[in-house]
Design goal:
The chain has 2 domains: 151 residues, Malic enzyme, N-terminal domain (Rossmann fold, 3-Layer(aba) Sandwich), CATH 3.40.50.10380; 222 residues, NAD(P)-binding Rossmann-like Domain (Rossmann fold). The protein is 44% helix and 12% strand. The chain contains 16 helices and 10 strands. The strands form 2 sheets. Strands 7-6-5-8-9-10 form a 6-stranded mixed beta sheet. Strands 2-1-3-4 form a 4-stranded parallel beta sheet, with helices on both faces. α8 crosses α15. It is elongated, with a radius of gyration of 22 Å.
C-alpha cells in the first residue's frame, strides 16, 4: 500500500482525525437545565470552594493537551505549527485508542521559550496533564523542566522519555538473549538532540557500564570546545576514557549502537568492528541508520528500528498512553524510577524473547494498563 497517498485520501475524507462527543444527553428541557443553566452553577460553586473537585466534576482528570510548536516533527524537522497539526491529531487518537484518555491537539505559533511556557501555564487548568511533542532541542529541556517545577499536573515530553523507555525495554530483553550484563557493556548513542540526551540519561540511571555519545561533529569529549551546556553535562556520566573521533571510531569494540540521528549512516563493515553479538537500535525514520539486512551481514545479533515493516518496532505508542493513564490517576509527576519501571513492565510482556521479538507489538492488548498500574504503585 502507498501509505502516503492513502493517508492524504483518508485525511481529506474525514477532515482530520478527531471530533468532540458529549457524555451527557441533551434531549429535553431537564437535560439542558442539568448540563447547562441553571444546574451547571452548582458544580461551578463547588469547584470555587475546592479546586480539587474539578477532577471529579469536569473532564480535566482524563484530559491531556498535546502541545507542539512544530519545530522538530518526526523526521520532517521544522515544518511549522500548522503543518504539524496532523501529527498532533494522530497523537490524540492514539491516547484514546490505547488508553481511553481524551487528548486535544494544540499547536503554538511561537518558538519563544518564555512565551511557550507562559501559554501552557495559562491553559493548564483545562487539563489533567501536558504532553509536549516535537519541540526542538535544547529549548525542549528547559520548557519541560520549568513546567514540571511550576505546575502540579504531569508533564511529559514524549520525544525524549517515551523514546528512551521503549529503547530501554528492548535493551533489557536484548541483553537476556546475548547473555551480557548492563554493567559491562558499552553503548554508543548517535544523536544528541532531545531523544539522544534522554536515552543517555535513562541508560545511565539504569546502570549501563559505559556510554559514548556522538553528535554531527563526532564523539562528545572533553577535548572539544564547541559543546553546549547540555552536552557538557553529559560528560559527567559518559565517555569514561575521553575518546575522540567519529561515530565510526566510537562503535569499534562497542556492544550496542543506538541511532536517533539520520538514515544510511552505517554499513556492514562498520558493524563488523563491534563486539560479538552486537545489538543495533536504528531509530531514524523513515530510513534507519542501517537497514536490518545490512546490519545482519555485519554480524549484528539483534536489530530494532522504528518501522512497522521490520521485526522489533520501537514505537512510543507502547509507552505514553500507559504512562499518562497512570500519572493522571495518581496526579503525579513522572520520575526516573517510573520510567525504569515502565521499561521493565514493557520488557516483561515478552515472555520468551528472541532475536526478532524483543518488544511487544503496538497492538498488544493490556500494555497501557500494566504500565499505568506500575506508575500508580510507585506514586504512593
Amino acid at each position: 500500500m502507498d501509505y502516503f497517498k492513502k493517508s492524504i485520501e483518508e485525511h481529506k475524507k474525514t477532515k482530520g482525525k478527531i471530533e468532540l462527543l458529549s457524555k451527557m444527553s441533551v434531549k429535553n428541557k431537564d437535560d439542558l437545565s442539568i448540563a447547562y443553566t441553571p444546574g451547571v452553577a452548582a458544580p461551578c460553586l463547588e469547584i470555587q470552594k475546592d479546586v480539587n473537585l474539578a477532577f471529579d466534576l469536569t473532564s480535566s482528570k482524563n484530559t491531556v493537551a498535546v502541545i507542539s510548536d512544530g519545530t522538530a516533527v518526526l523526521g520532517l524537522g521544522d515544518i511549522g505549527p500548522i503543518a504539524s497539526l496532523p501529527v498532533m491529531e494522530g497523537k490524540a487518537i492514539l491516547f484514546k485508542e490505547f488508553a481511553n484518555v481524551d487528548a486535544f491537539p494544540i499547536v503554538l505559533d511561537t518558538k519563544d521559550t518564555e512565551e511557550i511556557i507562559k501559554t501552557i501555564k495559562t491553559i493548564a487548568p483545562t487539563f489533567g496533564g501536558i504532553n509536549l511533542e516535537d519541540i526542538s532541542a535544547p529549548r525542549c529541556f528547559e520548557i519541560e523542566e520549568r513546567l514540571k517545577n511550576e505546575l502540579d499536573i504531569p508533564i511529559f515530553h514524549d520525544d525524549q522519555h517515551g523514546t528512551a523507555i521503549v529503547l530501554l525495554a528492548g535493551l533489557i530483553n536484548g541483553l537476556k538473549i546475548v547473555g551480557k550484563k548492563k554493567e559491562e557493556i558499552t553503548i554508543v548513542v548517535n544523536g544528541s538532540g532531545a531523544a539522544g540526551i534522554a536515552i543517555t540519561n535513562l541508560l545511565n540511571f539504569y546502570g549501563v557500564g559505559n556510554i559514548i555519545v556522538c553528535d554531527s561533529k563526532g564523539i562528545i569529549s572533553n577535548n572539544r570546545d564547541n559543546l553546549n551546556s547540555f552536552k557538557i553535562k553529559l560528560l559527567k556520566t559518559t565517555n569514561k576514557k575521553n575518546l575522540s573521533g567519529t561515530v565510526y571510531d566510537a562503535i569499534q569494540g562497542a556492544d550496542v549502537f543506538v541511532g536517533v540521528s539520520k538514515g544510511d549512516l552505517l554499513k556492514a563493515e562498520d558493524i563488523s568492528t563491534m563486539n560479538k553479538d552486537s545489538m543495533i537500535f536504528a531509530m531514524a525514520n523513515p530510513t534507519p541508520e542501517i537497514m536490518p539486512e545490512e546490519a545482519i551481514k555485519g554480524g549484528a545479533k539483534i536489530i530494532a528500528t522504528g518501522r512497522s515493516d521490520f521485526p522489533n518496532q520501537l514505537n512510543n505508542v507502547l509507552v505514553f498512553p500507559g504512562i499518562f493513564k497512570g500519572a493522571l490517576k495518581a496526579k503525579c509527576q513522572i520520575t526516573e524510577e517510573m520510567k525504569i519501571a515502565a521499561a521493565k513492565v514493557l520488557a516483561g510482556v515478552v515472555k520468551n524473547p528472541h532475536e526478532e521479538y524483543i518488544i511487544p507489538s503496538p497492538f498488544q492488548k493490556g500494555v497501557a494498563d500494566l504500565i499505568a498500574e506500575e506508575i500508580v504503585k510507585l506514586s504512593k
